[in-house]
Give the backbone structure.
Amino acid sequence: MLNGRAHDGGVADSDPAARPRRRVFSAEYKLSVLAEYDAAPDGTKGSILRREGLYSSHVTEWRKARDAGSLRALESQSRPAKRHPAEVELEKLRRRHERTETELTKTRAALELMGKASALLELLVESAETEKPSTR
């Protein structure tokens, strides 16, 4: 309640129409705006951008794509769908598991090597003890 009146808070947070959407421009639209922008005298280029609701960076980016000769580059680029947090966590756990398995394999190899080295040293000590000392 504000000033004795109920406050509805405007548009509900769950209303999908309230969320801003990224604008998508067709290749034909981009080419037509570029043609008009390039043909316009220097003093009127800003009015074209304001009328269309564009920024100069749009024109710069579109011009680079056009000059590269790629009409396909002018098409809107689709973004990969965001992965579910569970998929992200699963991928992280898989990478961690792979690292742990690799580390375990190295550790086992090192332990086996240490065991063999220890056995060899024991054999050397036993053979040194059983040899007769020189009587020089």
